Amino acid sequence: MSEWCQNKECCYKKNQNQIRGSKGNKYYQSNKASGYYKHWCSMGCRDRWWQQHSNTCMNAVGTIDKQTVNVDNAWVFLADYNYNGGDRHWIYYLVNKLMGVKQVITEEQALTPEQLREGSAWYSTKPDSEAKPLAIELGLAS
């Protein structure tokens, strides 16, 4: 993977930070790719690249028909941060919006053992693929 922005027109933005060389031999160069945008330096470069190459990408990968998730497989984990005066904590839910179910669950039910050990509860829960088995265990699904 290249460390440079993959938009071939990036160097034509002609920003001050792109100037390289000395005295009579100066030139503009592409920006380095950002860790956030991976292959591009900015959202603008990514969007311009996509406008030029979207058909090629879609032809190479192919298109898909409409995808659906049925009611039995619509279970997800959600986490909300609750601040009520001095009481601050996470509340975890097992949710199936298609069934209208939002069940409060424990931190142990919502997080993996690794997440519990590492204290990473603030940004993640178990994968949603584990939500339906928990719903069955709790008697919310069959």
Concise structural overview:
The protein has helices at 43-61, 107-110, 113-118, 131-137; strands spanning 19-20, 27-28, 76-84, 87-96, 101-105. It has 142 residues and is α+β, with helices and mostly antiparallel strands. A hairpin with a 6-residue loop joins strand 1 and strand 2.
Features:
142 residues, alpha+beta, 2 domains, two-stranded antiparallel sheet, 4 helices, elongated
How would you explain this protein's 3D organization?
This protein is α+β, with helices and mostly antiparallel strands. The protein has two domains: 10-61, no CATH class; 72-137, no CATH class. It contains four helices and five strands; from the N terminus they run ββαβββααα. The strands form two sheets. The chain has a three-stranded antiparallel sheet with strand order 3-4-5. A hairpin with a 4-residue loop joins strand 4 (87-96) and strand 5. The longest helix is centred in the middle third of the chain and has 19 residues, at 43-61. The relative contact order is 0.11.
Strand order of the largest sheet: 3-4-5
Structural class: alpha+beta
**Helix fraction?**
25-40%
Q: Specify the biggest β-sheet.
A: 3 strands, antiparallel
Q: Which residue ranges are poorly predicted, with pLDDT under 50 across at least 5 consecutive positions?
A: none
**Distance N to C terminus:** 46 Å
Q: Write the H/E string, N to C.
A: EEHEEEHHH
Overall average pLDDT: 92
Question: Can you tell me the number of structural domains?
Answer: 2
Q: Tally of extended strands?
A: 5
Count every helix, treating DSSP H or I runs of 4 or more residues as helices: 4
Radius of gyration: 24 Å
Mass-distribution shape: elongated
Strand % is: 15-25%
